[in-house]
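This part of the workshop introduces the protein records we will be handling. A learned vocabulary of local backbone shapes supplies the integers on the structure line. Getting from the letters to the tokens is the skill we practise here. As an example, a complete record with its sequence and its structure tokens follows.
=====
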Amino acid sequence: MLKRLCRLPSKLPRIQSDDRLILMVAGVMVGIASGLAALALNRSLEAMMEFVHHLKDYPWAFVLPGIGAAVSAIYLDYIMKEGAGHGVPEVIYAVSRYGGLLRLRSSVSRLISSCLTIGSGGSAGPEAPVVMSGAAIGSNIAKLFNLNDRQRVTLVGCGAAGAISSIFNAPIAGLVFVLEVVLGEWSTVNIVPIAIAAVAGTEVSRFFNGNQIAFSHTGFDIGVADTVAAAGLGLATALFSILLTRALRSMHGVSSQVKLPKWGRAAVGGCLVGLLGLVFPDVQGEGYHAIREMIVGAYNGAFQLAAIAIFAKILATSLTLGWGGSGGIFAPSLVVGSFTGLAFYRGVTLLWPSIPLVGEGCFALLGMAGLISGILQAPLTGIFLIVQITGGYEVILPLIVVSAVSTTITHYFEPASFYMKDLVDRGQLLRPGTDARVLNDLSLGELIEKDCLAVTPHMTLREFVEVVKRSTRNHFPVEDPDSGDFLGMVDLDRVRPYLFDTIMYDAVVVEQIMDRKVATVAYGDELAEVLYTMDTQGLFTIPLVVNRRFVGMISKATLLDKYRKELMVQTTDNA
């Protein structure tokens, strides 16, 4: 009964012609639910870190991150039947390939696994797991309301925006992150409901936690020298964005060579992080306490200590995530970025003490924007996130400089962002407006032309001519008369000379004029690959064969006509 009531709105004529109202209402629901998920993760992390803190003095405390990571891996692999991951790539993949379809269990699985990893001392962030949770909530609410693929994708974006907005108390950052990174498109159809969800998620956070700025600081008096120096900091943050990206990938490769179960590898990585934490305590957990110290200028230690801390945090994050722990890279990127900004400031003032720079707290703030922009290759996300979580609106000019420089330089060496690299390598990233995305929304079943007349290999040319007279096609599949198996094709254009030589009518059989080496496609083939095959081999049609049986022909003309119509639909939807 409840399901029927939920599906009723989507069937109303007014809703079917203009779905903005139902997306706005559903956006509020998704934003509240994802905001509560983010709040639950935050509270759980606080409780777990408080519990673990009391065990830090024991000599065996270095194994705590290993225990947490191992339990996390066991939970994901054996209980939830999901592999370890960062969360955001899985959401992007679901949006690209499956219309945003995500399992309901994903709304809780990454919350629990990341809480175990981070709360025990692993170097990771809670943001990506909570994005996965919010996106799964949005996907399943769309399923409850019986919404179509495009509407479901919008609600997936609503869930991700609500989660990010809630965890950072930053609605604009949540909106921009989803449009720039998760969905990859800026359309009015998406912006309004996602913005509403971001506001709803933020209000949930403010209701329970108050309107708090995550990293408060005193105002900065920005000068020209600071804006110019921001360009240099952009180069530094680009360098460490590339280093962090490659370290994570390399560590994945190293850990995969170790002959241990997943939970065993996660335990090894966690224990190594625990040992590293004995020397550099700031590398464990999300690391936000270190950021707060740096922004207010209270972080002790010389330039060398800040520089070493950068590499230590990168190593700790690589050991945590690369060896099977669960969590995201948002928080580690912010920590690495703030250390980079601090080290850059101290290095510059050490070499040129006369330069009037504003202060190390400002450069720690700028460094966070540079790392986020570089590793995500999303400059707007970096700018708005740092502005909102620090309240540092006065630093907007150097923020733009450092984010733009970092993104540009990182993109030169790493054409795909951290979240999208694996998807690009596997050919699984389909962004809106691209040929691959439009073709992915079509299916071979829509393109099949079944009016082809089949012939047999022992049919004479005279009998074949009679078949040609009844057909409107130029291509004739050849089938085995006993088994029905597809044997090849007869192309009318290639055999036309035989048709005008009546002497050959009883001397030639189809088997002599058929083409056995014919390129074929199957139902599982992607249309982008089909079109590529047709282009490279100069084909205008290609047979669809399933289990050695001819099903029909795929025509390039029909394919391109369907492509044009689908493009018109998508353009209208996004207007």
